[in-house]
Structures are given as C-alpha cells and as structure tokens.
Amino acid sequence: MHGLMQEWPLVCHKIIDFAALQHPGREVVSRSVEGPIVRTTYSDVRDRSLKIAQLLAREGFRKGDRIATLAWNTALHLEAWYGIMGAGGVYHTLNPRLFPDQIAWIMNHAEDRAIFVDLSFVPIVEKIASQVPTLKKIIVMTDAAHMPETVLENVVCYEDWLSGADGDFAWVDVGENDACGMCYTSGTTGDPKGVLYSHRSNVLHAMMAALPDAMGVGARDVILPVVPMFHANAWGLGQTAPMIGAKLVMPGGRMDGESIYELLDAEKVTFTAAVPTVWLMLLQYLEQTGNKLPHLTKVVIGGAACPRAITEKFEKVYDVEVVHAWGMTEMSPLGSLCTMKPEYADRTGDRLMDIKQKQGPAPFGVEMKITDDAGNDLPWDGKTFGRLKVRGPAVASSYYGGAGAEQFDDEGWFDTGDVAHIDEFGYMQITDRSKDVIKSGGEWISTIDLENLAVGHPDVAEAAVIGVAHPKWDERPLLVIVKKDGKSPAKNDILSFMEGKIAKWWLPDDVAFVDEIPHTATGKIKKTALRKQFADYKLPA
Amino acid sequence: MHGLMQEWPLVCHKIIDFAALQHPGREVVSRSVEGPIVRTTYSDVRDRSLKIAQLLAREGFRKGDRIATLAWNTALHLEAWYGIMGAGGVYHTLNPRLFPDQIAWIMNHAEDRAIFVDLSFVPIVEKIASQVPTLKKIIVMTDAAHMPETVLENVVCYEDWLSGADGDFAWVDVGENDACGMCYTSGTTGDPKGVLYSHRSNVLHAMMAALPDAMGVGARDVILPVVPMFHANAWGLGQTAPMIGAKLVMPGGRMDGESIYELLDAEKVTFTAAVPTVWLMLLQYLEQTGNKLPHLTKVVIGGAACPRAITEKFEKVYDVEVVHAWGMTEMSPLGSLCTMKPEYADRTGDRLMDIKQKQGPAPFGVEMKITDDAGNDLPWDGKTFGRLKVRGPAVASSYYGGAGAEQFDDEGWFDTGDVAHIDEFGYMQITDRSKDVIKSGGEWISTIDLENLAVGHPDVAEAAVIGVAHPKWDERPLLVIVKKDGKSPAKNDILSFMEGKIAKWWLPDDVAFVDEIPHTATGKIKKTALRKQFADYKLPA
Ligand SMILES: Nc1ncnc2c1ncn2[C@@H]1O[C@H](COP(=O)(O)OP(=O)(O)OP(=O)(O)O)[C@@H](O)[C@H]1O
Ligand SMILES: Nc1ncnc2c1ncn2[C@@H]1O[C@H](COP(=O)(O)OP(=O)(O)OP(=O)(O)O)[C@@H](O)[C@H]1O
Ligand SMILES: [Mg+2]
Ligand SMILES: [Mg+2]
Fold it and tell me: Of A120, A187, A443, B35, which has the most beta carbons under 10 Å away?
C-alpha cells in the first residue's frame, strides 16, 4: 500500500524557483572575469537561466545532452548550470587547470555538445575544439564589448545570445532520476572517471549539506565558495546556497590571499569553503597585513587532509570555526564533516584540535564502513584501519562509460579507494589511499602519517612516501623529500627525528631528496608519477 | 538518460539504523506512564524495534497493515513506531483525548489490526474493542508487575511479549513510497480525515525540519517534544531527533507546568515544541515559582496562533527564542516556520514581535500560494488574504478513503482550508479558516483578528466569532464571549473597546455571553458546534 503523499520530484529547477520566490532580492556577488565586482540576485539568476534553457531547447539541445562549462565561480556560471539543467541537459564542469589534451580527452569521453566558456579560457577552447567532434556550439560568457576575436566556429557572445530570448518558457520536464550534472574525478590515481549526478542526488545532497551538523548554513549566511564549481560540484554549494536563500559571493578567478580577504571583508562573508592550500595563502596574507576576520564564523576545509596548523590558526587567532570535511567527486562530494557530537563537545584547546584532525562522522544519508581486503567489517576503535566503503543517495553507482566496476559491490557499497579508521563515536580519519598504502609483511603502513610526521622537521618543505619493492617484506617505505631553501638535512637527521614517534617497523628504509614532487591539477601529490620516477630504485640492503 | 547514482530509498528504518550506528549511546529519557523516569538509548530503541518487527512479522502482520498506538510520548511509543514500520506496517496514532466512540470510528475507518496501548488507556480499549472487528491483538505497553487485570481478549504484556524475540531479523523490505504512518486530522471542521504518510515523506520532512532556518536542531541539542506523537506526527520529531542524533526527552502523560519544568531543568533541554496552551501553563508555573530556563534556547509554537504575550514572555523574560510555526496533519505537519531572513534579522523589541505574530516563510520542500475563490493568484503584499494552497513531497495527495477530494486540484495544489496573507518577503500569516471566515457583502472578515482583539479586553476570558445570516450582507459577525470570573462587561464596553482598531464594517453586529465555548480534543475552538448552538440566533435589526 502506497502512502497518500504528493508526487513532488526532487529536481534542481525547484531549487532556483524556490530561491527566486522566497529570496528574490538575495544577492549573488561575483568578481567577474572582466575585473569589476558584479551584483545580481537569485531572481535575476532564475530569469536568465530560463532564457538559457529556452535558447538551448530552441537550438535543438535535448534531454541528457552533456553541455560543458569551463569557467570560474561567478553568477554567470551558476546561471549556466540552472539553464542547462532547466533544458533537461547535463552540466559538465571542466577543470581549466588540466592540460588542454586532458580536457579534450574528457570532453570526448563525455561527448559534450556545447560549452560555456569564460573569456580567460577561450585560448584553451581554440586549442582543442577541432579535437572534439561532438562540440556544436561555443558560448563565450561575456558581453559584446569584451568579446575577443577568435578563429572558433559556432561561437556566440553570451550576452548577445541571451538577448534573443524572452524567458517565456517552462523548465523541460524531467524525472528526479534523470542526469543533471557531470564531473570527472581529479585523476590523482589514474585516468579521470566520470560521475553522473541526478537531480535527486543533487537535491538530497544539498539538503544534507545544509543540516546544522554538516555545513550548518541558513538564509542569514553569506557564503563564499572558493572551492571551484569545476571541483567536485563546488561541494554542492551551487545548490545549497539557493536552497536556503543565502547570499552568494563568487570569487571568479582570483584566489590569492588578498583577493579572498577583500571579498570576505567587503561582503561580510560568514561561511566559506576550500582546500587547504587556499587557506595557507589567506593566512599568510593576514599575517603580513595584520588584518582580521570579524565577520567569518565558519570555514569548511577538505579535498586533502587539513594540516593542524591551519585549523589552529583559524580557531585560535581568528576565532573562526574550522570544519574538516572529507569527500569525493563520487559522493557529490560530501562524505563526512568533523562537527562535534556531545561526546566531544566540551573539548577545548589541543584536545579539540586532536579531534579536528579527523575527517569526522558521516551525516544521515551517508552510510560508512571499513573492511579488510576480504571484505570483513573492521571495528570502530580509532586505530584499526581498512578500506573505507560508503553507500548513499548521493553516491555514484558506477562511472560513466563503465570504468572502475570493481569498486562497486553487489550490496551497493562503493569502495572509496581511501583507507581509514573510525573511532567509537563514529569519527573517521583517512590514513591513506588504498593504492598508496604500503603493505609490509602483510601489515599496512600509512604513507600520510609518515608524510605528516616528516614535514614537521624544520628543514623539510614537502614530503611524500611511496612503497618500493622489497624481497622479504614485499614493500617498504621510501621517503621523498623537498628541502627548504638553504637547508640541507642529512638522511639520518630526518629519520632520527621520526624515530620514537611511530612504530619502529614503520620507519622508512631510505630517504631520497628531489627538487620537486609532482602534483595534480587540483594540487594533490601525484604518487603514480612519483612511483614511476622511482621505479628502478633499489633500497639499501 | 538517468544519473549514475545509487538507489538508496528514503525509508524510515534507515533513520533508526543511523541513530544506533552514529549515536548509539545517545539517551532517550522518558517519564514513564508507571511514574519513574526511565533512561534508554537509540541503540536500545533500535534493538527493541527490531524485536517488535520480528514478532509482528512472525504473528502474520503484513506490509501495509495499520497498527494503532494509543499512547503518550515515551521511548516505548517510539520503539513501537519503528517496530511497526520495520515490519512494513503503518503506525496509526490515536488521540486518547477523543471520545471512545470517536476513537472506535477512526479505528474502523482505518481498519486497524492491532494496537499498542499505554497502561492508562486500557480502559478506553476495553470500552471499544468489541466495536472494532478488525482488531486482532492488543499489546499493553508495560511490564508484568504493572500488567492490569482485563477482560480484553488477545491481549499481551509488552515486556513479556518482547522477551519472546531475539531480534535476529532484517527490516521488512519496503519501497520509499510505501505507507508507513497514519494520523487523522483533529476534526475541528468536520469528521477527522485520515492522512497516510509514506516512508519518503517522513524522511524528507525530517530533513526539512532539521534545517537551520526550520527547527535548526543538531546532535548537541536535547529535544523535548511536548507535542504528542498522536498529534500530527509529533511535528516530525520522532524522525528528526534520531536522524540528527539529538537526545530525546519524552514527557509521558504529564504536561502541566511543573512536570515540564522538571524535565527542562533536570535534562538540560535545549529545544522544545508544543501548542500555545502548554506554554501558558509553563509560563504561569515559572511566574509562581520564580524559576528560570537557563538551558532552553528555542521553543517552537504552533497548532494554533501563538498569542503575542507568550512570545514576549519567552523572549524578553526567559531569553528563549520563539519560532512560530504553522502546520497541518496533512503536511506531516510543518508548513512554515517564522525564523528570520536577513530582511527582518536586525529587528528587535516590538518590531521583532510584530513579525513573530506571523506564521512565517515556507522552507524548501513547501510551495505556497494564495488565491481567490476562483483560483487566481493573489499578490504577496502582507494584506490581501485568500485561500492558502500548498504543494510538496510531505503534503497529502488525498485522504484515506477518499474524503475531501475537492481540496486537491489537478495541478497538485492542496487547499489547506486556511485563509492567509503573505508579505513581500514570503512571511505568511493565517487570518482564518475558510469555513470560518465571514463573507460580508462579498468581502472577507477575519474571525481570528476579531477574537484576538476581543480577548485584549480586560474582562474577557475567551472569545469566538462566527458568521450569522444577514438579509442584506449575507453574513455578519457575532462575537461570543466568556467573561472573566467576577467581571460583567456590557456588550457596548466590548464593542467600543474594539472600535477604531479595525475597519468599521468589521465590527461585530452583536455580542453574546456564554459560560463556555466548545473545544476539540486538541484544544481548538469548535466553531461547528458553536454555529449549531447559534443556528436560530437573530441579529438585532
Ligand atoms: N579531508 C580530507 N583528508 C584527506 N584526504 C581527502 C580529504 N578530502 C578528500 N580527500 C581525498 O580526495 C579524494 C577525492 O578527490 P577527487 O574526487 O577530487 O579525486 P581524486 O580521488 O583525487 O582523483 P582520482 O579518483 O581520479 O584518482 C578522496 O578520495 C581522498 O583521497
Ligand atoms: N500557528 C498557527 N496559527 C494559526 N492556526 C494554526 C497554526 N498552526 C496550525 N493551525 C491550524 O491548525 C490546522 C491544522 O490542525 P490539524 O491538522 O490538527 O486539524 P484541524 O484542521 O484542526 O482539524 P480538521 O482538519 O479535522 O478540521 C491548520 O489548518 C490551521 O488552521
Ligand atoms: Mg578518487
Ligand atoms: Mg484541517
């Protein structure tokens, strides 16, 4: 027997409809790609999205068509999202920091039919357009005055194009399980894999994200998503902010400390989110200038483990609450957020910082477990680590095109590829990637723990640990070090610094010094490249 | 093209699974029906729910079976909910304040197959069991020591019964659109109508309810639902609290000021919710004793318009935030919550109280509009009032058995039967019920406005306004008054008190004094009865 409740599909256009009805005048402030700060509202964003949808439909784009965006975070990019979804299409965010060839590879894999592109990225599209045969239309997101000369065909100037629509259009009818968005993983461990979000997953993720113990944001917040819309769905903020009616502040292409500070201050931002490296730049800038953060109350930090020093600076010096979060493109992306349950709520000082090193508990809507290689559940004791597996309505069920099928089991669990432990109160901590963890004599060694320890040495600028083959133990850790300018520590200096702080058998067998450690386009250490570099490396006997 | 996201149905047992996994030790504290305070946890609640589900399945209860509860708010009642839902059944809450015949009528209408009953309500079941032929099993929620002698057949003692299960059971497989709960409306305007909740509607409602601008509750909250589980689904708190991992404090059958205060204080309650009359009793008690509310931060008040004096006392004297809410059994029940958007956020004092008289904006998941009788949209100007219509995933699509079909239109809008205006920032205010509003010469007069005004007179204890037939104007208002003890105001005293405070043509044509105004089982003025009482009444010429 079914309940007698309304069919009200969870579709994304309801989010922008809601924002335009309940929060029509709420501002969306952008640092435009052309330079100036531009102010608009949810009501305008909706009006212009409707026009985009109308134009796309008129020009023959159909339900399910992938339409790429290559753009910074601005109101225009947000309009493009809702316009594409409103036409029944699938917004496909591209990371402009990838090499043009990688972008072309991803576009071909997704079979993108059109692209919305920022002025600054027109040169990229000029390089690759001919390699992407499905691409039928290029919309340069600027006005006539700024429209560049280009050799591209089928190109239009966004504002001119929009002026051809009157917005007298109804959102294309879609079901909640229809695809609406697409994002490829960062490609840290191999080829990027395509994740295809549905309307339902985006709406549910946005609700989960707004909950008090997740991001905890409401209409009185002013939200600055520094995390790019092309990085894991902007952590859902493009849906969450209009759903709750929060003012949005979009940083455009400038994410240096000064530019971010300017927005935080001028727009009285209360909530912001980004990867650790962005915050390093901001904190450095604040230290140099002596500026403070009187309006900001909360910062979500994730995408990579948040160094303790960043958390401490924010909380102790600037009185800003840090929420350490873990997520994946495959999870829309939020998987856990380290907010305090009553069990930890009265902690302060160092004891609180200890907890904030963890990636935290999963909110309702994310099921989590850790298993050994054979799939047996492991205990939640805060020590035993294993493969981290998840289930939920905003978790991928497969990759676009069928890659990585082995990561999905028949009970619906997705193997995240991360290795973690979970404590008795449900607080998860990432200890490694399963492709990076070192298997030494049947036991696991966390490379992240070793790296965190090594960078604590005063002469070390960056550290990476990889496993190298060992005749007796299968694998043993090699520590790769970039020295700080003007320093030249000996191998043994570093090893004896580490000794006693970890189990003896975890101590790296050797230290190698390099000028640079390879990184991905999202700034993560690229261990695949590092392993290639040290493929012929022989450990000392 | 579908998204490639997991199928993860929104079913209620996931809520209690989540609570037991992520918040196993979180307390559920009850004032038991037997008297003492009883402490349990979400982990226990889940274990015992599993046993209930196991027993119900073993005894032949099947998916979709309605299983009644006649009980106060306690952990046992909560276990019964999750046990019934976990067996694929439909919990059907009964209001013990109804006359036994009304309860029997509702049970027969729902065709309840079993009932979980509190010790205190066994006499009611004894009276009606023979009138409900579908009823196959009666579970008295107590232990052997307290089990009463009873003439009832097919009766078991809850704790004895539970001891026959080992909990080795998997929740019965249900889809998210399957029915899981049922509640009849209060019967204020006619026969009670059955609302059939689905798993999906309950889960989505719980998420909506927890959002920062709705109830805004999290794991560090201690939630006391004074609003009964048999009244409109306990405003969703039986799902919301475990979903967010908040400690629950259940008041049992004692809702007087002293008993509620005891729990608020001893359990350090941070959040509570109930109808205005409960808060009147508490505030009176606090005034008499001089006690304060140091732990409580927020109280949600709804079910009937919240008098300004209550809001002011809570906010100004006890520093507790009042959230005025509107809802209906048909809406699971939350429809709007008067929290502050930025447009009103800097108001203080009387100007803030003015806003808190409104029932507030709708959260995401509730669409709202006002129309005239012909169905034309009315403007959101804070003055023009009309029929309030809603849509949403937790709004009924029809009544059980098909009553009231005229309230549902073909675009999915449900006519709430309430009359309201909405202001430019989306703040809704109820002005009347459509069955009560007085149509005088084609224009509408709000009976609630007149009543609120009349009770402001120092000699008036209670006031109700009804329309009576008028040869020229169709209907004109009659003011019915219960005088305060020892006071005897003249008709004209009251009318001249009202004059000048409302449009002249709104002034009641007459005043009638009565000893008592009839009320429903949920404490609302029963205007149907009052209209009957004054059916032959002739207005003065
Ligand atoms: N707070 C965090 N602490 C540690 N690691 C994190 C954190 N947040 C995210 N990560 C890492 O980032 C990963 C998700 O990143 P993303 O989806 O951008 O692609 P990727 O995993 O880096 O690339 P690919 O899957 O293509 O190899 C997680 O699986 C985890 O390894
Ligand atoms: N904050 C509020 N202010 C004014 N009225 C309210 C408020 N909250 C609820 N109500 C009234 O209560 C109604 C919902 O109550 P409920 O579902 O318990 O049944 P009922 O409408 O009283 O009974 P029935 O539908 O059987 O006549 C709303 O439609 C509205 O009239
Ligand atoms: Mg990955
Ligand atoms: Mg009603």
Answer: A187
Mean pLDDT for the stretch of residues A265-275: 98
Measured distance CA(B237)–CA(B240) in Å, rounded: 5
- pLDDT bin (cut points 50, 70, 90) of residue A216 is very high
Residue B141, both tokens? 């929620």
Residues B8, A391: C-beta atoms closer than 8 Å? yes
- pLDDT value for B95: 96
Note the ipTM here.
0.96
Return the structure tokens found at A255.
Answer: 């994410």
Residue-averaged pLDDT of chain A:
96
Nearest CA-CA distance, residue B341 and chain A, Å = 6
Could you tell me the CATH number of the domain that includes residue B427? 2.30.38.10
What is the per-residue pLDDT for A520?
87
Give yes or no: B330 in active site. Answer: yes
Same domain? B386 vs B405: yes
Query: Is ligand 2 within 6 A of the CB of residue B446?
Result: no
Which residue of A1, A2, A5, A43 is the best one to mutate when testing the B interface, meaning the one whose CB has the most B CBs within 10 A?
A5
Cis peptide before A242 (omega within 30 of 0): no
Task: Chain A: give the shortest CA distance to residue B187, in Å.
Answer: 19
Residue A298 pLDDT > 90 = yes
* End-of-domain residue from the set A211, A227, A254: A254
Q: Model confidence over A364-419: pLDDT tens digits?
A: 999 999 999 999 999 999 999 999 999 999 999 999 999 999 999 999 999 999 99
The stretches in chain B having pLDDT less than 70 are: none
Return the pLDDT at B540: 87
Bridge partners, residue A108, by sequence: none
- Structure tokens belonging to residue A27: 């501002």
Q: What is the count of structural domains for chain A?
A: 2
Q: What would the two tokens of residue B375 be?
A: 């169905």
pLDDT of res. A522 = 78
The Cα–Cα gap between A113 and A107 comes to 9
Beta-bridge partners for B195: B183
Nearest to A362 among B22, B394, B426 (CB): B22
Asked if the model's pLDDT at residue A442 lies above 90, the reply is no
The span from the CA of A279 to the CA of A317, in Å, is 14
The answer to whether residues A358 and A429 touch, using CB atoms and an 8 Å cutoff, is yes
Q: Are residues B173 and B88 in the same domain?
A: yes
Distance CA B221, CA B225 (A): 12
Mean pLDDT of A354-360: 97
pLDDT for A21-52, tens place per residue?
Answer: 999 999 999 999 999 999 999 999 999 999 99
Q: Give the Cα-Cα-Cα angle B118, B119, B120 (nearest 5 degrees).
A: 90
Question: Residues for chain A: how many in total?
Answer: 541
DSSP letter string, A400-466? BTSTTGGGB-TTS-EEEEEEEEE-TTS-EEEEEETTTSEEETTEEE-HHHHHHHHTTSTTEEEEEEE
Contacts 24+ apart (CB under 8 A), B304-309: B304/B275, B304/B276, B304/B277, B304/B523, B304/B524, B305/B276, B305/B357, B305/B359, B305/B430, B305/B448, B305/B452, B306/B276, B306/B356, B306/B357, B307/B276, B307/B452, B308/B353, B308/B356, B308/B357
Is A265 contained in some domain?
no
pLDDT band at A69 (very low <50, low <70, confident <90, very high): very high
CATH number of the domain that residue B182 is part of: 3.40.50.12780
Residue A312 lies in a domain: no
Domain identity same for B392 and B498: no
- What DSSP character marks residue A362? P
Verify that B52 and B125 share a domain, yes or no.
yes
Atom of ligand 2 nearest to the CA of B359: 1
| B511 three-state secondary structure | strand
Residues 6+ apart with CB under 8 A from B82: B12, B13, B16, B45, B46, B49, B52, B53
A541 pLDDT exceeds 80? no
A236 burial type by CB count under 10 A (0-12 exposed, 13-18 middle, 19+ buried):
buried
